[in-house]
Specification:
CATH class of the largest domain in chain B: Alpha Beta
Radius of gyration of chain B: 24 Å
Helix content of chain A: over 70%
Number of domains of chain B: 2
Number of helices of chain A: 12
CATH architecture of chain A: Orthogonal Bundle
Number of helices of chain B: 9
Order of helices and strands of chain A: HHHHHHHHHHHH
Shape of chain B: elongated
Oligomer: heterodimer
CATH architecture of the largest domain in chain B: 3-Layer(aba) Sandwich
Order of helices and strands of chain B: EEEHEEEHHHEHEHEEHHEEEEEEEEEEH
Number of strands of chain A: 0
Distance between the termini of chain A: 24 Å
Largest sheet of chain B: 6 strands, mixed
Largest sheet of chain A: none
Largest interface: A-B, 19 and 25 residues
Structural class of chain B: alpha+beta
CATH class of chain A: Mainly Alpha
Shape of chain A: globular
CATH topology of chain A: MetI-like fold
Number of strands of chain B: 20
Strand order of the largest sheet of chain B: 6-7-8-3-9-10
CATH superfamily of chain A: MetI-like
Radius of gyration of chain A: 22 Å
Number of domains of chain A: 1
């Protein structure tokens, strides 16, 4: 307990850059943009944006599920490689994260555009171009591409830590390899699945750039709306109110998921 | 009773070219309590894993009831294992851990419940059904592991140093408990340990292993009283091992003196290893002794004194209830049945000299043996 002061720098940081700004957000959300008087109208306004909220959430859920479906087998595979191969594969997975997020998204634009690399190739071999960009699919693709590493890494860490003797014990008790997976490996991966989902879903639901570049005006996400309130439309009060609502919605989503997947939450790596 | 159940023939196991098991030949009878005993790295755990189906031997055969089992995977063998440090499923409670195998076998829930409840009673864990396994003590986890294996009513139970992590008192209790369970349920136990006392207490048959080879197979009494070579004599209990010459049947010469013994069947004048157990030696006055020497150290051990006596530069360990002070000049007498003769082996001269005696020999042997094995 004497080491309490060790957390001092972080506590200070959190107060300065998390708690105080959060207070500012709450203040803006609850005040009128012109008079500065207390009002709930900003918050009430969110009903107008409800379809956009819903779209953001379901696109993110979709992207998260795809990340899980792609990420789990990969994480499982890496966890069973030799340590040298593990290091290499881990590095490859993290490599895209070292390149600017903007650049990665723009690269997808260059690939998917109507006159982009893929469609140019298709026309050159005599096929008709495909509508690859400006739709929900492209937005989900962008999310999956950008957030997949955040799914793989926690899954890998948890699967790595599963004691191989537990797998032997399951075999010893009569499990074939499919049963070993469903009865032992998968249940023991739950903490990794929970933190992977959290780490993909939360940034995906509040993302804004991906949808602007890969989506159409019809697939605008709540992150885009919030961004525009601080830039083009300049209504920070509404922006703050929408952020606040989004934050609450994220909390609810994560809380439901934690309820759903993890009864003894002590083992989950990210609990919100 | 003595129907053969498992047979290993010329079993060889190699990891990356290193020979871990070297032509193991062994048969195990139904309802037998057989112990694989040896120091760390001797191949005992590897042998167990081959029987369990977790390793496929490089060459040689594993036979169950006369059928070759080399390629039958672990989950299809009628064998269950109690793993070193238990390997309980942390995501399941005590009840679900024990019911695991029965559920895989798709028994109906009513029968599962009956058998799990019965097992919980046998291992005295009634009332612990819904406890998390991570909240249990070592001894309790141990008993869950045993219950989880036994509830499937296997023909053979493999136990890999199951008591290694328990303290001495609990270990003794569990030894009796395991022996009782084995006899009550009539199951073949194959037990791996590095603890010679545990092996002597529990086993019907002991297989002493070292360097991937079987050194001796026998009943506990035979292994103790008639060790085949210096390794076995030293590993099972304490032994003074001396160079001797077998003059003829029942006559052996060592320390320049001829002793009567009960061994025969050696070549005339064959060099041999002579084993004398420290507890068999009678201390007498110097005039009456066959051999005379000076006491160089005495350590109180509770039941007896460990007395080190220097005979012409060779130090013997004598365990006696008679206290002889350091520096006293004493004699010893050896009866013919106290002397055991062994052929010379690769281990001759490596063991049985107490010149570097340390009062902590037991602890040192334990620490060395408790390390993990491949």
């Amino acid at each position: 307990m004497k080491r309490k002061w060790l957390s001092g720098p972080y506590v200070l940081w959190m107060v300065l850059f998390t708690l105080i700004p959060l207070g500012v957000v709450v203040y803006y959300a609850l005040t009128d943009s012109v008079t500065g008087a207390f009002t709930l109208s900003n918050l009430a306004n969110f009903a107008n944006y409800w379809p956009i909220f819903l779209r953001s959430i379901w696109l993110s859920i979709f992207a998260t599920l795809i990340c899980l479906l792609i990420g789990y087998p990969v994480a499982y595979f890496i966890a069973h490689c030799k340590p040298s191969a593990q290091r290499l594969l881990q590095m490859l997975i993290m490599l895209p994260m070292c390149i600017s997020f903007l650049l990665r998204t723009l690269a997808w634009v260059a690939l998917l555009e109507d006159t982009g690399i893929i469609n140019n190739f298709l026309t050159s071999i005599g096929l008709s171009p495909l509508p690859l960009i400006r739709n929900n699919g492209a937005v989900i693709l962008g999310m999956v591409y950008n957030y997949l590493p955040y799914m793989i890494l926690p899954l890998f860490t948890v699967i790595m830590k599963i004691d191989p003797r537990l797998i032997e014990a399951a075999e010893d008790l009569g499990c074939n390899s499919r049963q070993v997976f469903s009865k032992v490996v998968l249940p023991l991966s739950v903490p990794g699945i929970v933190s992977g989902i959290t780490m993909v879903f939360v940034p995906a639901v509040s993302t804004f750039y991906i949808s602007q570049k890969l989506g159409s005006p019809g697939t605008i996400l709540i992150g885009d709306v919030i961004e525009s309130q601080f830039k083009a439309a300049y209504n920070p009060n509404l922006g703050a109110a929408l952020s606040l609502v989004l934050m609450v919605l994220i909390f609810i989503c994560v809380w439901i998921m934690n309820r759903f997947t993890n009864e003894d939450d002590e083992e989950s790596m990210v609990t919100l | 009773m003595s129907q053969e159940l498992i047979r290993l023939t010329s079993l060889v196991m190699e990891f990356d070219g290193e020979r871990v098991l070297d032509s193991i030949n062994l048969y195990i009878n139904d309802k037998e309590f057989l112990t694989l005993l040896g120091p760390s790295g001797c191949g005992k755990t590897t042998t167990l894993r081959v029987i369990g189906g977790f390793l496929t031997p490089t060459s040689g055969d594993v036979l169950f009831d006369g059928k070759r089992m080399n390629d039958v995977p672990a989950y299809r063998r009628k064998i269950n294992t109690v793993f070193q440090r238990y390997a309980l499923f942390p995501h399941l409670d005590v009840y679900d851990n024990i019911a695991f195998g029965l559920r895989i076998a798709k028994l109906n829930e009513q029968e599962i419940d009956e058998r799990v409840t019965e097992m919980l009673e046998i291992v005295s864990l009634k009332g612990f059904e819904n406890r998390k396994v991570t909240s249990l003590s070592g001894g309790q986890q141990q008993r869950v592991a045993i219950a989880r294996a036994l509830v499937n009513r296997p023909k053979v139970l493999l136990l890999d140093e199951p008591l290694g992590a328990l303290d001495l008192r609990l270990r003794k209790d569990m030894q009796n408990e395991l022996k009782r369970i084995q006899q009550a349920m009539g199951i073949t136990f194959i037990y791996v340990t590095h603890d010679q006392e545990e092996a002597l207490t529990m086993s019907d048959t002991i297989v002493v292993m070292d360097k991937g080879k079987i050194q001796q197979i026998g009943r506990p009494e035979d292994i103790y009283n008639e060790p085949k070579n210096a390794f076995v004599a030293d590993f099972i209990g304490e032994s003074n091992i001396l160079d001797g010459i077998m003059l003829e049947d029942y006559k052996v010469k060592f320390f320049g003196r001829v002793f009567a013994c009960v061994d025969k069947g050696f070549e005339k004048n064959e060099p041999v290893d002579v084993v004398i157990r420290p507890e068999d030696i009678d201390i007498v006055s110097a005039e009456e002794g066959h051999l005379c020497g000076t006491v160089t150290s005495v350590t109180f051990k509770g039941v007896h004194y460990d007395t080190i006596v220097d005979f012409k530069g060779f130090k013997w360990l004598i365990q006696t209830t008679d206290f002889c002070p350091e520096g006293s000049y004493i004699g010893i007498r050896l009866n013919p049945e106290d002397i055991h003769i062994m052929h010379k082996s690769e281990y001759s001269g490596m063991f049985g000299d107490y010149s570097s005696y340390s009062a902590e020999y037991d602890e040192i042997a334990d620490a060395e043996g408790s390390e993990d094995e491949a």
